[in-house]
Design brief:
three-stranded antiparallel β-sheet; rod-shaped; alpha+beta
């Protein structure tokens, strides 16, 4: 579960996020910029689940491509065999 943050401003005017402990004391204080960057770097459970579904779908696609390549190569082999037969 994500920690709830209190928004504050520093004396220099920078936006701050303060995470409070259960007793109300400040547990951690970060600049908004750093906290936001960290949040964006981590994926949520829903994003991970969606990425897992996409990865399994992508794994199926190369098998189709391999089958298509094999189908394309087969006529080329037949043509090469016919040319070799004509030469003899």
């Amino acid at each position: 579960m994500a920690m709830r943050r209190t928004t504050m401003y520093s004396s220099a005017g920078k936006k701050l996020y303060a995470v409070r402990a259960a007793d109300g004391t400040f547990k951690d204080i970060q600049t908004y910029e750093r906290a936001h960057r960290a949040d964006m770097a981590h994926k949520s459970a829903a994003e991970k689940k969606a990425a897992g579904v996409k990865k399994s779908a992508k794994k199926k696609a190369p098998a189709k491509k391999a089958a298509k390549k094999a189908a394309k190569k087969a006529p080329a082999r037949k043509r090469a065999a016919k040319k070799a037969a004509r030469r003899k």
